[in-house]
Structure of Cobyric acid synthase:
Amino acid sequence: MTGGALLIAGTTSDAGKSMVVAGLCRLLARKGVRVAPFKAQNMSNNSAVTVEGGEIGRAQAMQARAAGLAPSVRFNPILLKPSGDRTSQLVVRGRVAGSVGAGDYFTHRAELAEVVATELASLRSEFDAVICEGAGSPAEINLRATDLANMGLARMGELPVVIVGDIDRGGLLAHLFGTVAVLEPADQRLIAGFVVNKFRGDPALLAPGLDQLAGLTGRPTYGVVPHSDELWLDAEDSLSVQPHRVVGRPQVPRGDDWLTVAAVRLPRISNSTDVEALACEPGVLVRWVSDPADLADVDVVVLPGSKSTVADLAWLRERGLADGIVLHARAGRPVLGVCGGFQMLCRTIDDPVESRAGVTAGLGLLDADIVFDPDKTLAHWESPLHGYEIHHGRVTRSAEDDWLGVGIRRDAVFGTHWHGLLDNDDVRRRWLADVARAAGRTGFVGADDVDVTASRDRQLDVMADLLEAHLDTAAVLALLADGPPDRPVITSALAL
């Protein structure tokens, strides 16, 4: 028997598709439904390692957790990791399959479509429901010929489609109408209805517009989901990591001092979610930065992961940030490098793989050398510490002290290849105490009651609760059972 499936698409990136899918997975799992997430093709440098030792988008790992499942390559069979030079690393079923550019991606479509169709059919045969997430917007009709994640997937699986729109951005009713109107009739017939996301006002004021939208499109709005300040962890879209943006919701200190953290917004940043654990702590203010002046008064600098370590290191030097980070460290103030950021802190980087630049001088804050291997290290750890590794570079020589068995340190400079290390509460607390002392923040008092893993789970329940309260769940469940409803075709200007 084939389980039901539906596609959650969006008017734009960052409309909330990932969280709606996660919320639906958690909501259905709480009802005893065997549910799985699915994103045919993701484009993101925020990734996670699966139980098979493969690589998928971090959002799909989060959605799997919402469904009560371990992350699997089945949930995101195609992952594109942008390299910044108009090419992307192509990851198929968790493993690197080469590099592709926008122009030559079309040549891979038939092969990749077979991968997507096989994985979706397999999940539908095993689960009662599969909640699929689109990518970007289905209204990107210039990409329709190669699309595998939006209407291409919907047509492939005869899936009903619900379009989510972020009302915070303005113009939502036009976005919803236009998204349907620009599609060809065969795609339009699969659009079942809409969900309004991140609403902050009086629903009564919006209701007449939704009634008119239903009249114009012949499609209902299944729900108006309120904005929630609790939904900020595991942000996947680059809009969430813009320079000067504060991470999360800063909480007042337990003591007399704040601890300020500058997370460098690298051009090819990867796994930006590593700093979120710090933002969960009372009295810790985390901000994304991109200029040397942003380092002047901060206590801690974090260099996050990068998809192109050598290129982003060159960017640090061009911007003057490299000198600022070195001065910060030589003053005895703390610096943390994670994965690519860790590699930048070392003495040399020998990269014949990503940049093919050969040996490049690092920042020299750690007396260690890095060599890039052709094969990517993919590892997932659960005990005694939990975290994961995704990197080509490895440490070939180090004169530094061991840091917890997962990295190296010199005084207040720390480096690790582990993503998610700071999600370990004891590790994070001890590290924050160390860096507060190094920064001279004697009035900083660490919290002993912050559980980052529980915070991530709590936001999944918050999203499920919001959907249960504000979504016509009976109508959505009917889509899973019955497939695409009979909806009219809109005649748009493009069709005339």
